[in-house]
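Troubleshooting entry. Yesterday's outputs looked truncated, so today I'm pasting the complete records for two proteins to confirm everything comes through intact. If either block looks cut off, that's the bug. Protein one:
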Amino acid sequence: MSSSPASLNLDGSSLVALQARAGRDPKAAVREAAKQFEALFMNEVLKSMRATTLSTGLLDDAGTKMGTQMLDQQFATQMSGLPGGLSDLIARQLERNMGLAPGPIPATGSANDTPAPLSAKPVPTAIPQAGAAGFVQQHSAEAQAAAAETGIPAAFMVAQAAHETGWGRKEILNADGTPSYNLFGIKAGPGWKGPVAEVTTTEYVAGQPHKVSAKFRAYGSYAESFADYARLMKNSPRYQGVVAQAQDASGFAQGLQRAGYATDPAYADKLTRVINTTLRLQRSLA
């Protein structure tokens, strides 16, 4: 789609061009789409104004009506895309919703809604300003390595890490406030010989949330977290059915819930939504 203000692009070919541009430059495509939306809105405003204007009818024929419509389209285009206008507001909101700009990150309803210990020092998350898109980019390499081990799509694992940590904003912290690098909320059972992070977390009993203290595995890096998750999915008989259904977002999420990965009764639905968000982000970043 041309960025020239000479005309209002309403035809199908312009929409196809905008879709192609979105694949190459998502932010520019968002700005152009916002500008087009504002132009459409302004065109409707002008049409409404024309409809309420008294006319003699002497010169109202098909030709003059078409000319008026074309003139209104030009006016609408000229008035759109100005700094501080409606298109700016639309573009900023779209960029935030798509994770293309700093701002509120899509809500996940983190299963590990774990507050930091009161004694912990504030520690910036790994992606303090980059948003959801930054989280996806940051963990793509580790997820690809885990996907090669398990057969679970990398996007599904990135999405689960995003859900468990609130896109990196609610990571489990050690007692001294440093990151535990535990992206998947894996607890430290009797067989775990490594370091642990003990925090307060939310568990559901008979469908009701309760705050409990629990020990979680701690790692030296995010790569270790993904590798440990991959071993759990690959080697535990409990999750064999999950791996078998891992080609479908809903099937993967439902399989995790049936296997008892989390106690939240809405875990599968929440995770499915985050997976779909992650897939959209990956397409926009491709």
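Protein two, checking that the full record survives here as well:
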Amino acid sequence: MEGEAFLRAISAAPNDNTVRLVYADWLEERGDPRSEFVRIQVQVRETARTDESFFGLQAREQEVRSRCPAHWVARLDPPVWCVVGNVIDVRTPFLSEESVRGTRLFRPNAKIYLATRSHWYAVLDPERYSSESVQVLGQHRKSRQWLLCWVGIRLTINWRLKLIHDPIVVVRLREAGWPGFWIRENEFQCPSDRGEMESIRGFFELAWSVVDRPT
């Protein structure tokens, strides 16, 4: 099995640590220092957050991660919970009688990802916080390049929680500092019996308890 085949196998069975450890052995046999990251990532995954060694392992993982190619790491990372919305279809700019589609930066109905926790509460009640803006990640309407920018909440719709699998998006969200990376996939279940807004609120309550833990 070659490197790409290992990555595909990990993607197909993301919770199978045995495949990851075999991949680490394969890398080590070839003198590839990335083997350390694969092993320590497995250690973090297998260590309870309440274990006294957990945060030390997590810090070591972050240190080793910084020395590895971001897009390679993203293929090993589990999917991450993110708050996802869309740009409105049609709007009428201030002091204008003509409607336009989308925004200056984003296409109509473009998918956008909440990138930081700044002003996250605005997505819960866009009408109440219509003057607020949120920092989002999305693709430019013309160049299709990824942008990290602020957008008025009144220009967005349909906010919901989604598990993000796309390595490109995962890399961009990590670079932006999205707090969802501190939450393990199995630590949060998006409840089917609650509305999207309550699910988002529950997600951030958990994020606060993890990210802002006492030191």
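Both blocks look complete. Sanity check on protein two: The two ends are 43 Å apart (CA to CA).
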